[in-house]
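Extended Data, record Glycosyl hydrolase
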Amino acid sequence: MTIEKIRELISQMTLEEKASLCSGADFWHTKAVERLGIPAVMVSDGPHGLRKQADEGDHLGINDSIKAVCFPAGCGTAASFNRELIQEMGETLGNECQAEGVSVILGPAVNIKRSPLCGRNFEYYSEDPYVATEMAGALIKGVQSKNVGTSIKHFLANNQETRRMSSSSEVDERTLREIYLAAFEGAVTKQKPWTVMCSYNKINGVYAAENETYLTKVLRNEWGFDGYVMSDWGAVNARVRDLAAGLDLEMPSSAGINDRLIVEAVKNKTIKESIVDRACERILDKVYRYKENRDTKAVFDRENDHEKARKIAQETIVLLKNENILPLDEKDNIVFIGKYAKEPRYQGGGSSHINSFKITSACDAVADMPNVTFAQGFFDYKDELDEKLIEEAVAAAKKAKAAVIFAGLPDAFESEGFDRSHMRMPDCQNELIKRVAIVQPNTVVVLHNGSPVEMPWVNDVKGIVEAYLSGQAVGGACVDILFGKVNPSAKLPETFPLKLEDNPSYLFYIGEKDKVEYREGVFVGYRYYDKKKMDVLFPFGYGLSYTTFTYSNLTISKKNITDKETVKVTVDVINAGSMAGKEVVQLYVSDLESTVIRPVKELREFAKVQPGETKTVVFELGKRAFAYWNTRIHDWHVETGDFRIMIGKSSRDIVCTKDIRVESTVKLPFVYTLDSTIGDIMEDPKAKQYINELMKGSVLFSARSEEDNSAASKAISQEMMMAMMKFMPIRGMISFGNGSVSMEDLLKIVDELNKQE
């Protein structure tokens, strides 16, 4: 339906009908207006599976949803670094939604992994905003290609579960732009999600639901978002203010309470009726886009989608350590140890929990291999050491050629609704790994977790496989990796620190009552660890393969560009090993001459390739690759200077570099005052001429011979005088000018400086 027809339809609605469209009919449906034939549509939780509930719906998963397919969670899909793969996952989800009559799937979730403690990290993609926004964009593109909407969430700065409905994220402008907004920006501007879901929390004291700065000025006016904004379930705090700020749809139903507030506000002229019309127009545009493109022939083929989930999971599993132990030989006697070998933890708890129609465990996947045995090792419903289980596991490990321990975090350790209190795995699991490794040198640990864990046994085992929470087919995918049927190709989308205390947000995470200060600023994840040159357990972008890739012939199309130009970067990648495999090529940029505080390097591009003999990877970099957010001009800005383009296998493994010079075409505004330092003024060639003569009269610039051995020369060196002059406000010339300058002179100079600006 065209916008013109939608507007005509809205003009026929009563105020009460229009207000009613601005809230849900129940937990999962929008309202219908039967008098005018306006249909209701269904939305459903996601983003890594379809959690469609029946009539007795609820938000947190207390009531069952339909049998569906659980794909890898965000923590795993980000590790794939494969846009095409995640787009394919999105297409599958979109088809499922069409088959089940769902108009919008609630996802993807792109909130930054500020701390390993966030209970919902398993849903989120990365500590890096570029990875987050690219993975989100790929999923959105896939889902919406099936004429089903997405709802990118949770907008904005929702990075913890503790007090998430009342806390205020206190974040400075530059950090918001470079880290937290950037995670949404690319996906919104390029892929145009149908909806955006606002978060519960406040941003700098203003609830997200009523934050006009972000819901309207940034999201719509700057980024061109043309869908509707919906609330997280129960995030509405002041319905009329929220509506005016840009929150179109309240979910779930308020039983008509907030609808009546909207009607009253229009009648008493607190809000214009045109604002209500605007919200209705945005909602109905998507309602009819879905309804008019309904695919009644779509089929939810669960078996087929299960196999797709396995294929995707294969690329989400990261090989962290391999001391000539993997891949395993199918002919060897091997013992699988740990509850998760039989009952894998493959998803997180809360609103994204999928009622999986089928689960393939690692034990299921080796059912036809009689030489693979099983030992329980531990139970995960409580963190208690079961000596009998450990002894059985140790005995089985002694008899085997190799032991594979399936461990990780139980549901009680990470879930929506609460944050982790530490970064440790259960003590019973750590003890199990320790005891098995003593008797079995060929020990491999497979981890099922949604966020980093400490590994006190890291040096005691030969292999470590990070399986993340990789969906209902994770067992089959793990076995494919363990036995070399598939070459591991995933990379860590987050840093694994040695210990929680190393994390940059450690001192401030969770905050004090309802105030959470993001004091680490832009230094999130690897940006912090690399700047501090800190040892980490495993760095961002890290992941091993069963083959070896070499890089060569890095070229850039231009050695000098302006901030209005682009540069093409190419590099050759060769598979130098004997096994076919995929590699994630990572491009970082470093500002070599920055006058602002910046990370050492930042990921600006990546590509996943499967080279035969040679694969040439091509990247194109524009202004944003070199820019930071300048709070003086409230825009992205590139400083004139030299930059280094780095190609790496991880943030800590840079294999080739090229330098480029970028010239800024933007003249930064500068208002000179009596407090402006001489050093700052001297940086501007035009301003410099106004004070050269002024400085000659200063006692700080008095000539002193090299033979001067007086006590004064020993106390006050030339270097000291130069530093004092550089950082001295020009008003200091009154004190050090030997009477040669007056206040009137200085005011005149300041006036001239500002005129020439």
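Summary. The first helix runs from residue 3 to 11.
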